[in-house]
Amino acid sequence: MAVSPLQRAKRAFVIVLQSIAAAYSVQLDVTRESADNLVTSAFRRVAKKVHPDKGGKLVDSQRLLAARQLWEDALRAAGANGRPVSGKSSATSSSQFSLSWAAHFLLLQSGRSSAMPVISEVVHPLSLNFENQRKVILLRDVKKQSWDDVRKQVRNLKGKKPTVKLLRRVYKNFSKKKGRVVYKDKKCGRKPWKVTKGVESFLLRRLKALRCESICTTTVLQRELVNEKGVDLEASTIRKVLTRNGYFWLTRAQKRKYSPDVTAQRLAFAKAVLRMSKAQLRERLSLSLDGVVLSMAPKDPLERQNWCAHGDTHMWRKRCEAASPDLAGNDAYGKQVPLCRAVPLWAGISEGGFATVVFRKSKKLCTVEWAEIVNGGKLTNAIRSLSPTKPRGPWWVLCDNETFLRTAVSQAAHKAQGISLWSVPPRSPDLNPVEKFWAWLRRTLRQKDWADLRAGRKALDKKAYQARVRSTCRTKRAQAVAASCAGGLRKVCKEVVAKKGAMARS
Protein backbone atom coordinates (compact mmCIF):
# COMPACT_ATOMS: atom_id res chain seq x y z
CA MET A 1 0.00 0.00 0.00
CA ALA A 2 1.36 3.39 -1.00
CA VAL A 3 2.28 5.75 1.80
CA SER A 4 0.77 9.22 1.58
CA PRO A 5 2.87 12.37 1.97
CA LEU A 6 1.10 13.05 5.27
CA GLN A 7 2.12 9.67 6.66
CA ARG A 8 5.69 10.12 5.46
CA ALA A 9 5.89 13.54 7.08
CA LYS A 10 4.52 12.23 10.37
CA ARG A 11 6.92 9.29 10.37
CA ALA A 12 9.86 11.58 9.67
CA PHE A 13 8.74 13.88 12.49
CA VAL A 14 8.43 10.98 14.96
CA ILE A 15 11.87 9.66 13.98
CA VAL A 16 13.46 13.05 14.63
CA LEU A 17 11.46 13.44 17.84
CA GLN A 18 12.59 10.06 19.19
CA SER A 19 16.25 10.59 18.29
CA ILE A 20 16.43 14.00 19.98
CA ALA A 21 14.49 12.74 23.01
CA ALA A 22 16.99 9.91 23.45
CA ALA A 23 19.90 12.37 23.27
CA TYR A 24 18.35 14.50 26.03
CA SER A 25 17.18 11.57 28.21
CA VAL A 26 13.48 12.26 27.68
CA GLN A 27 11.27 9.17 27.79
CA LEU A 28 8.56 9.08 25.11
CA ASP A 29 5.81 6.55 24.48
CA VAL A 30 4.88 7.72 20.98
CA THR A 31 5.26 5.83 17.73
CA ARG A 32 4.49 6.72 14.15
CA GLU A 33 1.02 5.22 14.65
CA SER A 34 0.21 7.35 17.71
CA ALA A 35 -2.56 9.92 17.66
CA ASP A 36 -1.73 13.45 16.58
CA ASN A 37 -2.47 14.95 20.00
CA LEU A 38 -0.04 12.52 21.67
CA VAL A 39 2.68 13.40 19.17
CA THR A 40 2.06 17.11 19.78
CA SER A 41 2.26 16.62 23.54
CA ALA A 42 5.54 14.73 23.17
CA PHE A 43 6.88 17.50 20.95
CA ARG A 44 6.19 20.10 23.64
CA ARG A 45 8.02 18.05 26.26
CA VAL A 46 11.08 17.62 24.08
CA ALA A 47 11.04 21.25 22.90
CA LYS A 48 11.36 22.46 26.49
CA LYS A 49 14.52 20.40 26.94
CA VAL A 50 16.04 21.26 23.56
CA HIS A 51 15.48 25.02 23.75
CA PRO A 52 18.84 26.87 23.83
CA ASP A 53 17.72 28.94 26.82
CA LYS A 54 17.25 25.69 28.75
CA GLY A 55 20.71 24.35 27.92
CA GLY A 56 19.88 22.65 24.62
CA LYS A 57 21.74 22.92 21.33
CA LEU A 58 20.61 25.35 18.66
CA VAL A 59 21.09 22.74 15.92
CA ASP A 60 18.80 20.26 17.67
CA SER A 61 16.17 22.93 18.23
CA GLN A 62 16.21 23.94 14.57
CA ARG A 63 16.05 20.33 13.48
CA LEU A 64 13.05 19.64 15.71
CA LEU A 65 11.18 22.76 14.59
CA ALA A 66 11.86 21.97 10.93
CA ALA A 67 10.38 18.50 11.34
CA ARG A 68 7.35 19.95 13.12
CA GLN A 69 6.84 22.53 10.36
CA LEU A 70 7.06 19.77 7.77
CA TRP A 71 4.30 17.82 9.48
CA GLU A 72 2.09 20.90 9.78
CA ASP A 73 2.55 21.62 6.07
CA ALA A 74 1.48 18.06 5.33
CA LEU A 75 -1.64 18.45 7.47
CA ARG A 76 -2.61 21.63 5.66
CA ALA A 77 -1.96 20.04 2.27
CA ALA A 78 -4.05 16.99 3.15
CA GLY A 79 -7.16 19.06 3.84
CA ALA A 80 -9.50 19.36 6.76
CA ASN A 81 -10.80 15.77 6.52
CA GLY A 82 -7.37 14.19 6.46
CA ARG A 83 -7.47 13.30 2.70
CA PRO A 84 -6.13 15.22 -0.29
CA VAL A 85 -8.68 17.52 -1.87
CA SER A 86 -9.84 16.22 -5.25
CA GLY A 87 -9.17 18.15 -8.43
CA LYS A 88 -6.28 19.38 -10.47
CA SER A 89 -5.18 21.98 -7.97
CA SER A 90 -4.94 19.41 -5.19
CA ALA A 91 -2.75 17.16 -7.32
CA THR A 92 -0.45 20.06 -8.03
CA SER A 93 -0.19 21.01 -4.37
CA SER A 94 0.38 17.37 -3.40
CA SER A 95 3.19 17.07 -5.94
CA GLN A 96 4.75 20.29 -4.72
CA PHE A 97 4.46 19.12 -1.13
CA SER A 98 6.10 15.77 -1.91
CA LEU A 99 9.08 17.58 -3.37
CA SER A 100 9.23 19.95 -0.39
CA TRP A 101 8.96 17.03 2.03
CA ALA A 102 11.75 15.13 0.32
CA ALA A 103 14.04 18.15 0.53
CA HIS A 104 13.35 18.54 4.23
CA PHE A 105 13.68 14.82 4.84
CA LEU A 106 17.14 14.61 3.29
CA LEU A 107 18.32 17.43 5.53
CA LEU A 108 16.64 16.04 8.63
CA GLN A 109 18.14 12.61 8.10
CA SER A 110 21.58 14.18 7.84
CA GLY A 111 21.10 16.00 11.16
CA ARG A 112 20.89 19.44 9.57
CA SER A 113 18.19 22.03 9.67
CA SER A 114 16.64 23.44 6.54
CA ALA A 115 18.26 26.81 7.17
CA MET A 116 20.74 28.14 4.62
CA PRO A 117 24.39 27.57 5.53
CA VAL A 118 26.26 30.58 6.87
CA ILE A 119 27.98 31.32 3.56
CA SER A 120 26.92 33.29 0.51
CA GLU A 121 25.69 31.81 -2.74
CA VAL A 122 28.18 30.97 -5.48
CA VAL A 123 28.80 33.95 -7.70
CA HIS A 124 29.46 32.41 -11.14
CA PRO A 125 26.52 33.40 -13.40
CA LEU A 126 26.21 29.92 -14.95
CA SER A 127 26.36 28.03 -11.63
CA LEU A 128 23.48 26.83 -9.47
CA ASN A 129 22.52 28.25 -6.13
CA PHE A 130 21.97 26.01 -3.12
CA GLU A 131 18.25 25.61 -3.72
CA ASN A 132 18.71 24.42 -7.28
CA GLN A 133 21.57 22.14 -6.26
CA ARG A 134 19.23 20.38 -3.84
CA LYS A 135 16.54 20.31 -6.49
CA VAL A 136 18.83 18.37 -8.83
CA ILE A 137 19.39 15.70 -6.19
CA LEU A 138 15.71 15.45 -5.33
CA LEU A 139 14.53 15.17 -8.91
CA ARG A 140 17.09 12.45 -9.63
CA ASP A 141 16.90 10.44 -6.39
CA VAL A 142 13.28 10.93 -5.37
CA LYS A 143 11.44 11.56 -8.63
CA LYS A 144 13.77 9.34 -10.71
CA GLN A 145 13.64 11.79 -13.61
CA SER A 146 15.98 11.88 -16.59
CA TRP A 147 18.63 14.54 -17.04
CA ASP A 148 16.58 16.27 -19.73
CA ASP A 149 13.55 16.49 -17.43
CA VAL A 150 15.73 17.76 -14.59
CA ARG A 151 17.25 20.38 -16.89
CA LYS A 152 13.79 21.78 -17.67
CA GLN A 153 13.04 22.44 -13.99
CA VAL A 154 16.38 23.85 -12.83
CA ARG A 155 17.72 27.36 -13.44
CA ASN A 156 21.17 28.85 -13.03
CA LEU A 157 21.91 32.29 -11.61
CA LYS A 158 21.12 33.87 -14.99
CA GLY A 159 17.69 32.26 -14.97
CA LYS A 160 18.50 29.95 -17.86
CA LYS A 161 18.59 26.18 -18.19
CA PRO A 162 21.97 24.68 -17.21
CA THR A 163 23.82 22.15 -19.29
CA VAL A 164 23.55 18.44 -18.58
CA LYS A 165 27.30 18.37 -17.97
CA LEU A 166 26.91 20.90 -15.16
CA LEU A 167 24.01 18.94 -13.68
CA ARG A 168 26.07 15.75 -13.65
CA ARG A 169 28.94 17.54 -11.94
CA VAL A 170 26.61 18.99 -9.29
CA TYR A 171 25.06 15.57 -8.70
CA LYS A 172 28.48 13.98 -8.32
CA ASN A 173 29.92 16.59 -5.93
CA PHE A 174 26.78 17.20 -3.86
CA SER A 175 27.15 16.48 -0.13
CA LYS A 176 23.92 15.35 1.53
CA LYS A 177 25.52 15.93 4.90
CA LYS A 178 26.10 19.64 4.23
CA GLY A 179 23.20 20.18 1.84
CA ARG A 180 25.34 21.70 -0.91
CA VAL A 181 28.31 21.11 -3.18
CA VAL A 182 31.59 20.99 -1.29
CA TYR A 183 34.21 23.13 -2.97
CA LYS A 184 37.80 21.94 -3.02
CA ASP A 185 39.19 25.45 -2.73
CA LYS A 186 38.23 27.02 0.60
CA LYS A 187 37.54 30.40 -1.02
CA CYS A 188 35.99 29.13 -4.24
CA GLY A 189 32.52 30.52 -4.72
CA ARG A 190 31.83 31.47 -1.13
CA LYS A 191 32.72 34.06 1.44
CA PRO A 192 31.83 34.45 5.12
CA TRP A 193 29.38 37.26 5.56
CA LYS A 194 28.54 37.06 9.26
CA VAL A 195 32.10 37.15 10.60
CA THR A 196 32.80 40.76 9.74
CA LYS A 197 35.62 42.81 11.22
CA GLY A 198 33.19 44.35 13.68
CA VAL A 199 31.96 40.94 14.84
CA GLU A 200 35.52 39.65 15.15
CA SER A 201 36.68 42.62 17.21
CA PHE A 202 33.58 42.28 19.42
CA LEU A 203 34.37 38.62 20.12
CA LEU A 204 37.95 39.44 21.10
CA ARG A 205 36.87 42.32 23.36
CA ARG A 206 34.27 40.21 25.16
CA LEU A 207 36.73 37.34 25.57
CA LYS A 208 39.30 39.57 27.27
CA ALA A 209 36.64 41.06 29.54
CA LEU A 210 34.96 37.80 30.57
CA ARG A 211 37.80 35.30 30.89
CA CYS A 212 39.20 36.89 34.07
CA GLU A 213 35.83 36.83 35.85
CA SER A 214 34.14 33.61 34.75
CA ILE A 215 34.41 30.57 32.51
CA CYS A 216 34.32 32.05 29.03
CA THR A 217 33.70 29.42 26.35
CA THR A 218 32.61 29.75 22.75
CA THR A 219 28.99 29.14 23.76
CA VAL A 220 29.19 32.09 26.16
CA LEU A 221 30.59 34.26 23.37
CA GLN A 222 27.85 32.96 21.09
CA ARG A 223 25.19 34.13 23.53
CA GLU A 224 26.90 37.50 24.01
CA LEU A 225 27.03 37.98 20.25
CA VAL A 226 23.33 37.25 19.85
CA ASN A 227 22.34 39.57 22.70
CA GLU A 228 24.55 42.49 21.70
CA LYS A 229 24.84 42.27 17.92
CA GLY A 230 21.90 40.09 16.93
CA VAL A 231 24.26 37.80 15.00
CA ASP A 232 23.98 34.04 15.49
CA LEU A 233 27.22 32.19 14.75
CA GLU A 234 28.00 28.54 15.27
CA ALA A 235 30.36 27.76 18.15
CA SER A 236 32.74 26.11 15.69
CA THR A 237 32.93 29.36 13.71
CA ILE A 238 33.80 31.29 16.87
CA ARG A 239 36.52 28.76 17.65
CA LYS A 240 38.00 29.34 14.20
CA VAL A 241 37.95 33.10 14.74
CA LEU A 242 39.75 32.79 18.08
CA THR A 243 42.31 30.34 16.71
CA ARG A 244 42.98 32.60 13.74
CA ASN A 245 43.79 35.40 16.18
CA GLY A 246 46.21 33.25 18.18
CA TYR A 247 43.92 32.16 21.05
CA PHE A 248 43.86 28.52 22.14
CA TRP A 249 42.03 26.50 24.80
CA LEU A 250 44.91 26.11 27.29
CA THR A 251 45.25 25.50 31.00
CA ARG A 252 45.22 28.31 33.51
CA ALA A 253 48.36 26.88 35.15
CA GLN A 254 50.96 29.60 34.92
CA LYS A 255 54.73 29.49 34.83
CA ARG A 256 55.60 31.06 38.14
CA LYS A 257 58.71 33.24 38.14
CA TYR A 258 60.37 33.29 41.54
CA SER A 259 62.73 35.93 42.81
CA PRO A 260 66.19 34.83 43.98
CA ASP A 261 65.12 35.12 47.63
CA VAL A 262 62.04 32.94 47.15
CA THR A 263 64.06 30.43 45.12
CA ALA A 264 66.59 30.17 47.96
CA GLN A 265 63.78 29.64 50.48
CA ARG A 266 62.23 26.91 48.35
CA LEU A 267 65.55 25.11 48.01
CA ALA A 268 66.21 25.36 51.74
CA PHE A 269 62.76 23.96 52.56
CA ALA A 270 63.10 21.08 50.09
CA LYS A 271 66.57 20.14 51.32
CA ALA A 272 65.41 20.23 54.93
CA VAL A 273 62.60 17.80 54.10
CA LEU A 274 64.98 15.46 52.27
CA ARG A 275 67.35 15.39 55.25
CA MET A 276 64.57 13.91 57.39
CA SER A 277 63.92 10.21 57.51
CA LYS A 278 60.45 8.90 56.67
CA ALA A 279 59.65 8.45 60.36
CA GLN A 280 60.84 11.97 61.20
CA LEU A 281 58.81 13.46 58.36
CA ARG A 282 55.73 11.53 59.46
CA GLU A 283 56.24 12.89 62.98
CA ARG A 284 56.79 16.43 61.69
CA LEU A 285 53.82 16.44 59.32
CA SER A 286 50.98 16.11 61.81
CA LEU A 287 48.68 18.03 59.48
CA SER A 288 48.96 19.78 56.13
CA LEU A 289 46.46 22.61 56.61
CA ASP A 290 44.87 25.01 54.15
CA GLY A 291 41.56 26.56 53.22
CA VAL A 292 39.68 26.18 49.96
CA VAL A 293 36.69 27.89 48.38
CA LEU A 294 34.65 25.21 46.65
CA SER A 295 32.18 26.34 44.03
CA MET A 296 28.64 25.12 43.50
CA ALA A 297 27.27 24.72 39.99
CA PRO A 298 25.62 27.90 38.61
CA LYS A 299 21.85 28.06 38.20
CA ASP A 300 21.99 29.37 34.63
CA PRO A 301 21.73 26.37 32.24
CA LEU A 302 24.50 27.51 29.89
CA GLU A 303 26.90 28.51 32.66
CA ARG A 304 26.12 25.28 34.49
CA GLN A 305 26.95 23.22 31.42
CA ASN A 306 30.22 25.11 30.93
CA TRP A 307 31.13 24.70 34.59
CA CYS A 308 30.42 20.96 34.64
CA ALA A 309 32.25 20.34 31.38
CA HIS A 310 35.32 22.53 31.88
CA GLY A 311 35.52 23.73 35.47
CA ASP A 312 37.96 26.58 35.94
CA THR A 313 41.13 24.82 34.82
CA HIS A 314 41.17 25.95 31.15
CA MET A 315 40.63 29.20 29.31
CA TRP A 316 41.07 30.85 25.90
CA ARG A 317 44.45 32.56 25.93
CA LYS A 318 47.52 33.08 23.79
CA ARG A 319 50.57 30.93 24.31
CA CYS A 320 52.64 34.00 25.14
CA GLU A 321 50.32 34.80 28.06
CA ALA A 322 51.56 31.87 30.13
CA ALA A 323 53.19 34.14 32.71
CA SER A 324 50.49 36.82 32.82
CA PRO A 325 49.49 37.37 36.48
CA ASP A 326 46.01 38.58 35.49
CA LEU A 327 45.16 35.16 34.05
CA ALA A 328 46.67 32.97 36.74
CA GLY A 329 43.42 32.46 38.61
CA ASN A 330 44.76 34.37 41.63
CA ASP A 331 42.31 37.25 41.32
CA ALA A 332 40.66 38.86 44.31
CA TYR A 333 38.14 36.69 46.12
CA GLY A 334 35.28 38.80 44.81
CA LYS A 335 36.18 37.91 41.22
CA GLN A 336 36.65 34.18 41.75
CA VAL A 337 33.38 32.72 42.97
CA PRO A 338 30.36 34.75 44.12
CA LEU A 339 29.45 34.19 47.75
CA CYS A 340 26.08 32.67 46.84
CA ARG A 341 27.95 29.79 45.16
CA ALA A 342 30.97 29.61 47.47
CA VAL A 343 31.46 26.84 50.04
CA PRO A 344 34.55 27.80 52.11
CA LEU A 345 36.24 24.92 53.91
CA TRP A 346 39.27 24.60 56.18
CA ALA A 347 40.70 21.11 56.46
CA GLY A 348 43.95 19.16 56.40
CA ILE A 349 45.57 15.89 55.43
CA SER A 350 48.33 13.64 56.66
CA GLU A 351 49.41 10.10 55.98
CA GLY A 352 46.47 9.10 58.16
CA GLY A 353 43.94 10.56 55.71
CA PHE A 354 41.70 13.64 55.55
CA ALA A 355 40.04 15.58 58.38
CA THR A 356 37.68 18.56 58.27
CA VAL A 357 38.36 21.50 60.56
CA VAL A 358 35.44 23.82 59.85
CA PHE A 359 32.98 24.94 57.16
CA ARG A 360 32.71 28.72 56.97
CA LYS A 361 30.16 31.21 55.64
CA SER A 362 32.75 33.81 54.65
CA LYS A 363 35.66 33.23 52.30
CA LYS A 364 38.34 34.79 54.52
CA LEU A 365 39.07 34.13 58.17
CA CYS A 366 40.13 36.78 60.66
CA THR A 367 42.30 36.43 63.74
CA VAL A 368 39.42 36.32 66.23
CA GLU A 369 37.55 33.64 64.29
CA TRP A 370 40.65 31.49 63.93
CA ALA A 371 41.48 31.81 67.63
CA GLU A 372 37.95 30.64 68.48
CA ILE A 373 38.37 27.63 66.19
CA VAL A 374 41.69 26.66 67.79
CA ASN A 375 40.56 27.27 71.37
CA GLY A 376 37.37 25.34 70.68
CA GLY A 377 39.44 22.25 69.92
CA LYS A 378 38.39 21.83 66.28
CA LEU A 379 41.96 21.89 65.00
CA THR A 380 43.27 19.49 67.64
CA ASN A 381 40.32 17.13 67.08
CA ALA A 382 41.21 16.97 63.38
CA ILE A 383 44.84 16.15 64.23
CA ARG A 384 43.85 13.47 66.76
CA SER A 385 41.49 11.81 64.26
CA LEU A 386 44.43 11.34 61.88
CA SER A 387 46.97 10.38 64.57
CA PRO A 388 45.11 8.27 67.15
CA THR A 389 48.40 6.95 68.56
CA LYS A 390 49.43 10.48 69.56
CA PRO A 391 46.53 12.02 71.52
CA ARG A 392 48.66 14.87 72.92
CA GLY A 393 51.03 17.42 71.46
CA PRO A 394 53.34 18.80 70.48
CA TRP A 395 52.06 18.75 66.91
CA TRP A 396 53.45 20.38 63.79
CA VAL A 397 51.07 21.89 61.25
CA LEU A 398 52.29 22.66 57.73
CA CYS A 399 50.51 25.75 56.40
CA ASP A 400 50.77 28.75 54.10
CA ASN A 401 51.82 32.24 55.10
CA GLU A 402 48.35 33.52 55.99
CA THR A 403 48.47 36.75 57.99
CA PHE A 404 45.90 35.77 60.61
CA LEU A 405 47.94 32.66 61.49
CA ARG A 406 50.92 34.79 62.55
CA THR A 407 49.24 37.29 64.86
CA ALA A 408 49.93 37.28 68.61
CA VAL A 409 46.40 36.10 69.42
CA SER A 410 46.65 33.14 67.04
CA GLN A 411 50.12 32.19 68.26
CA ALA A 412 48.91 32.21 71.86
CA ALA A 413 46.02 29.91 70.92
CA HIS A 414 48.41 27.57 69.10
CA LYS A 415 50.79 27.44 72.06
CA ALA A 416 47.96 26.66 74.47
CA GLN A 417 46.95 23.67 72.34
CA GLY A 418 50.52 22.43 71.81
CA ILE A 419 50.61 23.32 68.11
CA SER A 420 53.62 24.67 66.22
CA LEU A 421 53.38 26.05 62.69
CA TRP A 422 55.66 24.88 59.89
CA SER A 423 55.48 27.39 57.05
CA VAL A 424 56.04 26.70 53.38
CA PRO A 425 57.90 29.32 51.31
CA PRO A 426 55.86 32.13 49.72
CA ARG A 427 53.90 31.35 46.54
CA SER A 428 54.66 27.64 46.82
CA PRO A 429 51.42 25.63 46.65
CA ASP A 430 53.34 22.67 45.25
CA LEU A 431 55.10 22.26 48.62
CA ASN A 432 51.83 22.01 50.56
CA PRO A 433 50.41 18.50 49.96
CA VAL A 434 46.83 19.50 50.72
CA GLU A 435 46.70 21.54 47.49
CA LYS A 436 46.81 18.32 45.47
CA PHE A 437 43.91 16.96 47.47
CA TRP A 438 41.88 20.10 46.74
CA ALA A 439 42.47 19.57 43.03
CA TRP A 440 41.20 15.99 43.30
CA LEU A 441 38.18 17.07 45.36
CA ARG A 442 37.20 19.80 42.88
CA ARG A 443 37.46 17.36 40.00
CA THR A 444 35.37 14.72 41.80
CA LEU A 445 32.64 17.18 42.77
CA ARG A 446 32.48 18.55 39.24
CA GLN A 447 32.03 15.02 37.89
CA LYS A 448 29.05 14.58 40.21
CA ASP A 449 27.64 17.92 39.06
CA TRP A 450 28.02 16.74 35.47
CA ALA A 451 26.14 13.53 36.30
CA ASP A 452 23.31 15.61 37.81
CA LEU A 453 23.15 17.75 34.70
CA ARG A 454 22.98 14.78 32.34
CA ALA A 455 20.30 13.14 34.49
CA GLY A 456 18.19 16.31 34.38
CA ARG A 457 18.43 16.99 38.12
CA LYS A 458 18.43 20.51 39.49
CA ALA A 459 21.58 22.14 40.82
CA LEU A 460 22.12 21.63 44.55
CA ASP A 461 21.63 24.37 47.09
CA LYS A 462 24.38 25.24 49.56
CA LYS A 463 23.19 22.94 52.35
CA ALA A 464 22.91 19.94 50.05
CA TYR A 465 26.27 20.75 48.46
CA GLN A 466 27.97 20.81 51.88
CA ALA A 467 26.44 17.42 52.60
CA ARG A 468 27.86 16.13 49.31
CA VAL A 469 31.31 17.46 50.21
CA ARG A 470 31.19 15.77 53.62
CA SER A 471 30.08 12.43 52.19
CA THR A 472 32.72 12.59 49.46
CA CYS A 473 35.52 13.31 51.92
CA ARG A 474 34.45 10.41 54.16
CA THR A 475 34.85 7.80 51.44
CA LYS A 476 37.74 5.34 51.44
CA ARG A 477 38.85 6.72 48.10
CA ALA A 478 39.19 10.25 49.52
CA GLN A 479 41.15 8.99 52.53
CA ALA A 480 43.49 7.04 50.26
CA VAL A 481 44.05 10.07 48.00
CA ALA A 482 44.79 12.26 51.03
CA ALA A 483 47.33 9.77 52.39
CA SER A 484 48.98 9.51 48.98
CA CYS A 485 49.24 13.31 48.62
CA ALA A 486 50.79 13.64 52.08
CA GLY A 487 53.23 10.81 51.41
CA GLY A 488 54.37 12.41 48.16
CA LEU A 489 56.01 15.44 49.78
CA ARG A 490 59.50 13.91 49.54
CA LYS A 491 59.04 13.26 45.82
CA VAL A 492 58.00 16.88 45.26
CA CYS A 493 60.99 18.17 47.19
CA LYS A 494 63.35 16.04 45.11
CA GLU A 495 61.91 17.58 41.95
CA VAL A 496 62.26 21.11 43.37
CA VAL A 497 65.92 20.48 44.16
CA ALA A 498 66.50 18.96 40.72
CA LYS A 499 64.91 22.02 39.08
CA LYS A 500 66.94 24.39 41.28
CA GLY A 501 63.92 25.86 43.00
CA ALA A 502 61.43 25.90 40.12
CA MET A 503 57.86 24.72 40.61
CA ALA A 504 57.34 20.97 40.72
CA ARG A 505 54.80 19.30 38.45
CA SER A 506 54.64 15.87 40.09
TrEMBL record:
One function term, GO molecular function aspect: nucleic acid binding
InterPro entries xref list: DnaJ_domain, J_dom_sf, RNaseH_sf, Tc1-like_DDE_dom
Domain Tc1-like transposase DDE: 365-452
A Pfam family of this chain: DDE_3
SUPFAM superfamilies, sorted: Chaperone J-domain (SSF46565)
Protein name: Tc1-like transposase DDE domain-containing protein
Native organism: Polarella glacialis (Dinoflagellate)
